[in-house]
Amino acid sequence: MLMKMIIVGCGRAGSTIAVKMSLEGHQVSIIDKNPLAFDRLPPDFAGTMVVGTGIDEDVLIKAGIKETEAVIAVTKGDNTNIMIGQIAEFLYKIPRVMVRIVDPKVKQFYDTEIGLPCYCPTEINADYYIRFLKEGNGCIS
Prior knowledge:
The protein is 42% helix and 18% strand. The protein has helices at residues 12-23, 57-63, 78-91, 104-114, 121-135; strands spanning 4-8, 27-32, 48-51, 70-73, 96-100, 118-119.
């Protein structure tokens, strides 16, 4: 099933997600407040690049929030990602929303108390290192 999606944050994670999903045929809009961030995308990137912040409604509308099926927020700021996720899920009723939250305590609150789907790289990394310490396995892919 091909989707229309918005990715907010064109850093390493956001640009990688955007490229992979676009290559699979999904309709991707990517938002970043720094126009130089789009240099991470290949010249033949088929998606839409929107300069601005993901908490600005005009920017979200330009990126297609009213027609999108998924929003991923992977900016550098937990609070920004949370706001983007809440706007997408609660105001625009987007069916698939995921936000990156680096702080595990904040992630737990928003995930369990508010019901906002969150990804916490700190927890994932810690689990990886613990698994390595217990099992001695090297790189896990």
